[in-house]
What we know:
alpha/beta; four-stranded antiparallel sheet; 10 strands; globular
Amino acid sequence: MYIHIDHVSKEYKQNDRVIKALKDVSLTIERREFICLLGSSGCGKTTLLNLLAGFEAPSSGRIVIDGTEVKRPSPKYVTIFQNYSLLPWRTVQKNVELGLEAKRLPKKEIHDISSRYLNLVGLENFSKAHPYQLSGGMQQRVAIACALAVDPDIIFMDEPFGALDAFTRTKMQDEIFNIQRGQQKTIVFVTHDIEEAVFLSDRIVIMTPNPGKIKKIIPVNLGDHRSRTNVDFQSIRHRVFAEFEVTENDTTEYYI
């Protein structure tokens, strides 16, 4: 196992109340897996991601990554949020170079690496633009280039496409799926979109609230060439809907 979540619980104190965000969560994740944490608001999926990233500590239990217990954030893994987290005063290329500057690499190497990843996400022609000049989807591609440029072992993604329109979201799903397969990164991806989870993941971890816990883990054996319209995709999608007791004719646009 590469990531081991061992009987993790998380509680928060709010005035005189104790809020149980997670209860007795256990999960193992293998190297180079794409895992989607899927569930409705309040099921603890973002809390679990924050614990994995080292932003918070469990109330009980422990998380071990590659043999080391997680106590704090590490440069070996990065987190991509929904709000892009780009610096508005830096150009696209300078944003991608930021993490590399912290490594004190030679300037030419920094430029070459950032250029390579801008090319990978299809933004080589926008290197001198500023974030405000880009669409939401393009800004998210810059954030992905920033993450990949520092060559992390793991990428944590917290609903990174949630603010995008449906068409751009579909394109971004295609891009991150292809990048993950090509770069062989381990990705833990938070979403509340059933179809997104089926398209992207090797396994879907379904979470339920009050308190947050794992209800079911569903393997997604669709291979590396995926179609949202084929029979196997629809079969897994139907199975996930069934876990939430939602009908496929519901008007929620596949969200829960």
